[in-house]
Fold this protein.
Amino acid sequence: MSSSSAPKRRRVERPPSPKYSLDDDNYEPYIPVAQRRQARLAKLTSWGANSDKDNQKKLQQEADEREDEEREEERRREKARKERTLLVEAQEVHSKRAQEDAQKTEVEKADEKDAEILAAIAARRKLASDLELAKGIQYSESLKTSWRPPKYIRERSEDQVRKLREKYHIIVEGDEIPPPIEHFADMKIPDPILKFLKSKRITSPTPIQLQGIPVAFSGRDMIGIAFTGSGKTLAFCLPLIMMACEEEAKLPFTRGEGPVGVVLCPSRELASQTYENILAWTEALSKEGQYPRLNTLLCIGGISMSEQSHVMNKGLHIVVATPGRLIDMLEKKRFTFNNCKYLCMDEADRMIDLGFEDDVRNIMSFFKRQRQTLLFSATMPRKIQDFAQQSLIRPVLVNVGRAGAANLDVLQVVEYVKQEAKMVYLLECLQKTAPPVIVFSDNKNEVDDIQEYLLLKGVEAVAIHGSKTQEERQYAIKSFKSGAKDVMVASGVASKGLDFNDIQHVIIFSMPKEIEDYVHQIGRTGRSGKTGIATTFVNMNTPEQTLLDLKYLLMEAGQKVPPFLLTIEDPRAAQGGSLKGCPVCGGLGHGISNCPKLEDAQRRQMASHRSNQDGGGGY
Ligand SMILES: Nc1ncnc2c1ncn2[C@@H]1O[C@H](COP(=O)(O)OP(=O)(O)OP(=O)(O)O)[C@@H](O)[C@H]1O
């Protein structure tokens, strides 16, 4: 016990000497001295005993406190020891990682980075309606249809079916895949449509049609990939027409009922073209009175919907739409998807890549029952296929050629042309073939400049790009399609899916950054079995990576690779890395970590994030 903590002796307080008085409250009776001494002694003795007890208690308390302190001290020491160990461990792990990193080759590091990016893409929200996601709705069976292939085709052996697919270079994935059918008549297509197709010289199905139509007729979800100009439109429209025809025959549609199905397109021009095709086929179907009349609505921005009130006033069978206007109409309840059971996306990679993904989800949320979903495109990188497949039910993948490969019927010529010499050289190039010719540039101002220059030089040219009004765009397409104009100068808007008659020559004035866009642009020629030429201008302004994509694409298609392209080395080859194509855009000359499409998507995402923060955004 330390002296400072020793209990202080209590001083005995002596009472002040009283002033005695009998009636005083403080009166104390007299007690003899001996008696008082004894009482004091007894008191002192008892005080001593109490103070001993106190001392013992205090001592015990102090011992407890000391023990507590020691325990606390030990805890502190232990914690510090642990922290030191963790720190050392962290330092060790860090230096081990640094050592491992140093040992890793550049290729391994790049592979790791690619895997991280891929994992981030794979974590994207499933492509399904929010309602389905929220309710956890998951269908396990494909949509039931009454269609079946003819008996003699059903009885074919697996080997026969495999050989047939090999003959047409068709690759399929999925289970219980319906067999390919080589003749339209065996697909049980109504006679009036067969007659109409024949009148358009469509007599036997193309590979995507002979495998894709039986798959779609069977009610199966599918991803259809085939070259530009290989007849995908018929492959996804015919099943919808047949479905609508069957529904109408069962119970005729009245005002406010329908549609049975919808075709979604990424551009107004493509939607208009698909709409016109469907109109032609449905009119042919009902012409002889044997089959019912079907009503189709075109639902795109930039047009007045009141012009189509005659369609809206009847039952609606088919809708062809661009996403923005379709969402608008559904939100305004101009029609519903309560009984809609067919959803097809043309140029589907564009629809579900980052730009349109949320719109598609939004559209899906208007479906109230199970649907058949089909995705078609000429370009569909593996990652988009995988992403889409998770959202389909027992999907069948039908692939004709490599997804993203160029159409082999197009002769591809790549020329080095200095920026300042392009206009003059363009005039020279126009002499190569007879019209019609399409000239592509992804820059709207450049599109206008080229048209102006050509007009000045006396060339009948029209122009189309996203900043033109809908009337201007329609006029350009109409006059070019009709042959009134020889040249159409276009931005990317006109590249995907548009089917112009017999384009002789496509001139790519400025090479697009994404090789998929190039594939779609050259694909405006060499359609439905005919041949065409594509001339592409490149120069110092063309990114090296784009040139590498182009070089590999030319090699794949067995085309002549010009010497200046041959000299471009692939940095991945120098590092001993793999030369796999990019899983995001399908480009063969780069990996995922420097994919221009991904960069562009990220830029767009950041811009939309910024505009949302600024209170902008929306449609
Ligand atoms: N079986 C066929 N035989 C001959 N021509 C056909 C056949 N099917 C379709 N066509 C014609 O081929 C042309 C191209 O068809 P379509 O526009 O459907 O091609 P696509 O594969 O969708 O091309 P893109 O990828 O560029 O959109 C059209 O003019 C169409 O009439």
About this structure: The chain has two domains: 130-400, 410-603. The mean pLDDT is 83.
